[in-house]
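step: validate -> pass
step: tokenize input -> pass
step: predict -> running
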Amino acid sequence: MSSVLRLAGWWALDYAYAAGRQLRSAVSRVGPDEFLSGAGRPVVVIPGIFEDWRFMLPLIRELHGAGHPVHVVTVLQRNRLAVPKAAALIASYLRDRNLRDTLIVAHSKGGLIGKYVMMSLDPERRITRMVAVGSPFSGSRYAGYMLLPSLRALSPRSAVTLQLSREQRVNERITSVYGLFDPHIPEGSVLPGARNVPLDTGGHFRILAHQVTISTVLAEAEAAEAAAAAPRVPATPTAAGPEG
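step: predict -> pass
step: emit ->
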């Protein structure tokens, strides 16, 4: 009984968080250009379905405060486009702004979009890594019961979900963060071959503000910078005898 109450509590807290963030997003007058300054590694944020970019404003502020220019693709609006179409917009944004060594920070469906770009639309490897929070990499069985096509497309049986599940080459460049219980994704967000980071709580939305989520995102952003700044050590030539 206690486990049932715990899950119900997580569910209630999750929807309260989502409702509050949607309300704050609706009344916010913050503009996307306010976060483009910074000398750190560029970050592109991809929100989940029915979320505009301001839904992820707490994470955006953390990243920008740490010196990272944060980009949002406003043409996604509330992210109701099919994953391939949304991915094409992200890829175009990266090319148009010549972003390189980019970190993707994504929520829910945004993680599917980010992975689609990485595996199909990023031949120049402009995206170095992605942190996905609560992403349905194996789909959600609940999606099949939804009336809206944009939600049904997240079914485990949809062509795009199956394609994303089969392709595992880019998984090693992805960090998947997820709760112990996700009311929207019973399949969970474990991604084979990726760095998987389980949290000590449940939820689909409020885990965006979890301290481990924030620290994981910041660490990913800073780790790549440190690697890029490290001096290259020349390869030691292999001793060889005279030819002939």
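step: describe -> Residues 228-244 have pLDDT under 50 and may be disordered.
step: cleanup -> pass
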